[in-house]
């Protein structure tokens, strides 16, 4: 009796086709949301207070007692004072590129922004994927901001 071998790639492809997991037409691309939110969350900045970067000079976790929904996204604040500051001028405190990684947006794609990998430049808050990516971004901040500004918000599509 001849020996038969199983080609796992062929089996997987056949299974996907059989159950309708592969289509002959390309799938419609889904745009990324305008503001980065961690999976299964509606709270921006992983719960960090956007005002704290500007007022305290460092990120502070927000408190659910001091929260506000802005354009369908929840923001938390470390104090009632920070909530009042945000409420009076949200645009002054929101991270650029919707909180996505500034390095990624400069490169023409999106990636999560880490609230602990941040920098304020020209009065604006920029986040990066992590500290290592932030070091790369920091090698040419003006150039990367110019590229990011050119790519935003089209990069979401």
Structure characterization notes:
- With 157 residues, the protein is an alpha+beta fold.
- The chain contains six helices and four strands; from the N terminus they run ααββααββαα.
- It has helices spanning 8-18, 52-55, 80-88, 102-106, 131-138, 141-151, and strands at residues 63-70, 73-77, 114-121, 124-128.
- The strands form two sheets. The protein has a two-stranded antiparallel sheet. A two-stranded antiparallel sheet has the order 3-4.
- Strand 3 (114-121) and strand 4 form a beta hairpin.
- The longest helix has 11 residues, at 8-18.
- The chain starts with 7 loop residues before the first helix and ends in a 6-residue tail after the last helix.
Topology, element by element:
Layout: H1 8-18, H2 52-55, E1 63-70, E2 73-77, H3 80-88, H4 102-106, E3 114-121, E4 124-128, H5 131-138, H6 141-151
Antiparallel strand pairs: 1-2, 3-4
Q: Helical percent range?
A: 25-40%
Average pLDDT, all residues: 87
Find the structural class using helix and strand composition. Answer: alpha+beta
Report strand order across the widest sheet. 1-2
For the largest beta-sheet, the strand count, sense and barrel status come to:
2 strands, antiparallel
Count all strands and give the number: 4
Summed up, the helix count is 6
Radius of gyration: 21 Å
| Backbone shape | globular
List the helices and strands in order: HHEEHHEEHH
Which blocks of ≥5 consecutive residues have pLDDT under 50? 1-6, 8-27
- Provide the β-strand percentage band: 15-25%
> CA-to-CA gap between the ends?
55 Å
């Amino acid at each position: 009796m001849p020996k038969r071998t199983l080609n796992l790639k062929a089996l997987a492809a056949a299974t996907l086709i059989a159950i309708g997991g592969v289509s002959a037409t390309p799938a419609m691309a889904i745009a990324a949301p305008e503001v980065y939110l961690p999976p299964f969350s509606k709270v921006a900045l992983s719960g960090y207070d956007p005002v704290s970067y500007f007022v305290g000079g460092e990120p502070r976790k927000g408190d659910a007692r001091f929260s506000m929904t802005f354009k369908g996204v929840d923001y938390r604040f470390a104090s009632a004072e920070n909530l009042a500051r945000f409420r009076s001028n949200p645009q002054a405190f929101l991270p650029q590129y919707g909180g996505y990684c500034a390095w990624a947006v400069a490169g023409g794609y999106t990636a999560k922004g880490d609230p602990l990998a941040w920098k304020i430049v020209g009065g604006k808050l920029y986040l990066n994927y992590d500290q290592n990516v932030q070091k790369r971004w920091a090698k040419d901040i003006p150039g990367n901001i110019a590229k990011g500004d050119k790519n935003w918000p089209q990069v979401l599509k």
